[in-house]
């Protein structure tokens, strides 16, 4: 048991710190995401109406899919910049685009999972659909879309952290360490 305690608290202390920082940045990203989502929901068409019909299926791209994607793009950029500067301190290690494209790729995987979960929570035919008697969209706190987004975010966040830590930020640092090691030629002592 003592060995496990050491393994978790001492050996992985840095990872716990990174997870906490990533969580704080993610929390601010959730606020940004929700603010953009609420704004889109207020000014755009009805979130549950069809944006694009998917032929030969019972599913459609609804406006809430569009709103969730817009909110994701804004929050993804926000989270990337703060994680790059504060959590993983990688701004000195690599170019902005070189890190953003993998971060966006990870985010896109997270977005796909988020949209899937949100669809399960909002589609009336889903067994996991949020109850319309409780979440009747009468107030902000009873809006199904907002709760679906919060639930989906809570489920997807650990996956996002793991993929970003293992791939996005550390792989770029690893590439830069390799490229920064100068190949030294032997110094000739002959004159």
UniProtKB/TrEMBL annotation:
GtrA/DPMS transmembrane domain mapped to chain residues: 21-169
Main location: membrane
Stored PANTHER family: PROPHAGE BACTOPRENOL-LINKED GLUCOSE TRANSLOCASE HOMOLOG
Residue intervals passing through the bilayer: 20-44, 64-80, 101-125, 145-163
Keyword annotations of the record: Membrane, Transmembrane, Transmembrane helix
Short name of any one Pfam family annotated for the protein: GtrA_DPMS_TM
Full protein name: GtrA family protein
Family the UniProt entry places it in: Belongs to the GtrA family.
Higher taxonomy: Bacteria, Bacillati, Actinomycetota, Actinomycetes, Propionibacteriales
Subcellular location: Membrane
Membrane protein topology class: Multi-pass membrane protein
Recorded superkingdom: Bacteria
